[in-house]
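Note to self: keep these together.
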Amino acid sequence: MKSSIAWFGLIAALGMAGCEGSAAPPAQKNPEPAIGVSPVEQHKLNTTVVLPAQVLAFREVAVYPKVTGFIESISVDRGS
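Structure:
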């Protein structure tokens, strides 16, 4: 019985000795390289995209005048 307790104590002592902690990480010999930074510049975009398309109304609404009279001119194409 004493020998099993002695073995258990020996195993426990070795286990605890291995848990002392890890060594400090090695110091870096080469510092990290510097990263270059450039200032931000503002420019207008020169990109124009022309695509053929047709615009349709989602709803149609009849337009009536609030007062009596007549319309002398309509300055847009009808149906626009």
